[in-house]
Design a protein that fits this description.
By secondary structure, this protein is mainly alpha-helical. Helix content is about 40%, strand content about 10%. The longest helix has 18 residues. The protein is globular, with a radius of gyration of 21 Å.
């Protein structure tokens, strides 16, 4: 635990750095991963530690052990019976890119429970070769129909660059497009049910309602589209500066009220009904859809099969390390500790070895894609380091003030 009251904390993060007593995550983890506008001191909901120093995600994992999963599966079957169609038409949507989770979701819904899912894909910004092969295998070996939405490449490139410059968040606009595609496709094809995999509570985010009707949600109006922020700038600013129109942004924004009018569409999490264990999802995907792990260790962590389809993925996790002091090894180890695949001590060792490793394999390719110099990226990284998390050692090198291994600059 570290008290940094003398240092400014960006992003509304807690000034005092604390680590979960069960896993290796800190209270600096933002519970919401989507940022719309950047101000260094804007408030963000962060990972909560209870009075015993245990994080939200670990407490959720404890609750999972008390759930009657047989009863939950019976709930699932009743839900599927309600929506199952017998005329060959689609009765649910499974969004995904062919990663382990979407492979499991689609396959088990179709082959165990008799549903006819339409799989949909908001493609990665820059496909990896093995990520693209996994996507094809998901469709071809798994046996699914798929819609892959090719959004405006010019705008995707621009918004990715703006997200890095203004938010230091390479994935912001990708996440928005990915989340907003499913309701639009569901409305277009009159498909009543959307299935995601894990509930966000698995990672310590606020627990999402398992059953959500899209008609109950409030969606944006074209009257205020200019006030929406993408990549840290308002749509109005982007349109004026880059000579774009409203039409250029529509694929990144939520479904409109007009699109959802009179549509009965529900969003559910399969992880609510079936016990979700990421490592088991990986084995299932390998066996049933030809999923293959990365042919080398992912930089910044020790694993090979999580989030491997996008060349920008590794850079995204590096930016979380810069902004929040939490790298990819911390995320992976925390999850595996909760699932009893690692001890906390083993997790600490992995964090010490891999967290914050610079992802140089695709770095230059990514910089060329967004037309940014490596020097500019380094300058941005230093700008987004929160003073309460980072300081310089006697040699002028950046170092975290506090770490889970208690070997930080101020520990």
């Amino acid at each position: 635990m570290g008290n940094n009251k003398n240092y400014e904390a960006y992003y509304g993060l807690p000034q005092e750095v604390s680590f979960c007593k069960k896993c290796v995550i800190s209270n600096q983890r933002p519970a919401s991963t989507i940022e719309f506008k950047h101000t260094p001191n804007s408030k963000k909901t962060t990972m909560h530690l209870d009075d015993e120093g245990v994080c939200d995600a670990c407490r959720n994992a404890e609750q999972k052990e008390k759930i009657d999963w047989k009863s939950r599966e019976e709930e699932l079957i009743k839900l599927l019976d309600k929506y199952r169609k017998n005329d060959g038409s689609y009765d649910c949507i499974v969004p995904g890119s062919g990663g382990k989770d979407s492979c499991l979701q689609a396959h088990i819904l179709k082959y165990k429970y008799g549903m006819n899912p339409l799989t949909i894909t908001w493609p990665p910004i820059m496909y990896t070769e093995y990520g693209y092969e996994n996507w094809k295998n998901w469709i071809d070996i798994g046996g699914f129909d798929n819609i892959s939405f090719r959004r405006n490449g010019k705008v995707m490139k621009l918004l990715t660059k703006l997200s890095i410059e203004n938010l230091f968040h390479p994935f912001q606009t990708f996440i928005l497009g990915q989340k907003n595609l499913a309701p639009k496709i569901a409305a277009k094809f009159n498909i009543p049910l959307i299935f995601y995999g894990e509930n966000e509570a698995e990672y310590g985010n606020p627990i999402a309602d398992n059953a959500t009707s899209l008609r109950d949600k409030s969606f944006f109006s074209f009257k205020n589209i200019d006030e929406i922020y993408l990549g840290g700038l308002s749509v109005k600013e982007i349109k004026e500066k880059y000579n774009l129109s409203n039409a250029d942004f529509m694929s990144f924004l939520p479904a409109t009220e007009a699109e959802l009018k009179d549509k009965e569409i529900e969003v559910r999490y399969l992880g609510y009904y079936l016990k979700w264990i990421p490592q088991e999802a990986y084995y299932y995907a390998v066996e049933n859809t030809g999923f293959k792990a990365r042919p080398f260790r992912t930089q910044g962590t020790y694993s090979k099969y999580n989030s491997i389809d996008d060349k920008i993925d590794d850079l995204h996790y590096y930016t979380t390390f810069i902004k929040f002091g939490i790298g990819r090894a911390t995320y992976d180890a925390s999850q595996e500790i909760r699932n009893k695949h690692l001890t906390r001590e083993e997790g600490q060792a992995l964090v010490r070895k891999f967290d914050g490793e610079f992802p140089d394999k695709y770095f230059n390719e990514v910089m060329n894609y967004i037309e940014m110099t490596p020097e500019k990226f380094t300058e941005l990284a230093d700008k987004f380091r929160s003073p309460h998390l980072w300081g310089k050692d006697d040699n002028g090198n950046w170092k975290l003030r506090h770490t889970v291994n208690n070997d930080g600059l101020d520990d």
